[in-house]
Amino acid sequence: MSEMSPEVRQPEPAQEGKEQERRSPERASSPRAIAATPRTSKSEPSAGLQRTAAAIRTMVPLAQKLLPLLDGNVASAVANLLAPRAPAGPPVDLQPLETAIRQVRGDLAVMQDKSAQQDTALKRIDDQLETVKESLERASVEQKEAAEELTRTRKSVRTFAILGVILLFLLIGLNVALFVYVKGGLR
Length: 187
Known about the structure:
single chain, rod-shaped
């Protein structure tokens, strides 16, 4: 059999019996013997599990950087590998920001109050405009009625004037005819 590392070497079946005979109590307490013998205590993990866990711990950050490759995002994976890890910065003082936010909220409340007052004023103005519009419509209707009545009165006056002029001419004609008759009868 080929030579293996000392920790993982497995004896051949023929040599198994010889090895067991060679083991002495002194060798049983050696570090290699302890690593090779299975532990019965469940509270302590075996050396192989410790090595595996250590290897996984070292590979996890690298795997996290390479995971974007699975999505096909090569540029992101390369950037993750090349980008230096920035240490966490000093704690940020958010007090000025919170003060500014409180001030903005206060200003917003004042603006909303003013907006509500303006809305109320605009509603009053709208109501007043509706009242003025209604009164203008009534005045317009009354003006149209007055104009129609004036037109009717004008027609009536014109008719009476024409009748009066006709009667006047008729009367003048009768007076002239009577005067001619009377003058002609006197001779």
